[in-house]
Request: fold
Amino acid sequence: MTGQIADHYGRLAATYDDHWTHDPEYVRGVVRAMSGALRLHPGDAIADVGCGTGLYTRQLADDVAPLRPIVCVDPTPAMLDQVPATPALRPVLASAEDVASGRVSLPLPGPFDAIVVKEAIHHVTDRAGTLRGLAGLLSDHGRMLVVMLPRTIGHPLFAAAHDRFTELQPDPADVAEAIATTGLRASVSYRTFHVAIDRERYVRMLEARYMSVLGEFSEAELAEGIAQFRHAYREEPVLRFEDHFAFVTGWVRPA
Ligand SMILES: C[S@@+](CC[C@H](N)C(=O)[O-])C[C@H]1O[C@@H](n2cnc3c(N)ncnc32)[C@H](O)[C@@H]1O
Reply:
């Protein structure tokens, strides 16, 4: 993880959850879609790699009620500190690369039936090698789900942020290809979630750099972007947009 990304999430950690809890149905809907895509059931051993504060992992634990704790992996101490202390979640301070390479071993014995990587794959430097390593942790009925934004998004960012996002964001098709190369049966599908959010609340999210791409801008550039945003949405006290996520799945092939 670069110093810039570590600093970004170190700063964002305390307010991260506030940004996505304005509509409790949003997190619930995303998690329902995730557990549906992986066909999770209580007997599964589950890991959430790049779990952040565990905002989605908590809901996953509530929905699926797995018999073993969900292993919550993240390299940012301040994010992981927000994971609630509950027997249902087992935090591990590590990156996806650490876990995939075996540098850090996970606290549950045996292979995993389901590995989730939500909105973290863009931070992984060696994506092909890391996905190969994660695939190697799966059981013989294991599956993997990478949830990621596509390269163009509907969030009401200012123009320079959209451009930079597109430059940085990996293509879900490339992630699917990397997963297929590991030998898993890979596919990509898309899910759409509707977001309605007060404009002033969204301004606070921009100020807090709620997306890591906003960390690419200086204070002055961000202020200029927010001014452009305010002008563009001056007649919309409530912003409505569609959040499209790519769900890239990989299933272990039957022997
Ligand atoms: C946008 S947040 C997503 C957190 C959580 N999955 C969610 O959806 O709320 C990205 C997370 O990826 C983590 N991260 C950064 N580099 C990583 C890496 N190399 N491996 C795993 N996670 C990483 C950050 O610490 C941060 O918590």
Q: What stands out?
A: Residues 151 and 169 are 5 Å apart (CA to CA). The chain has a mean pLDDT of 95.
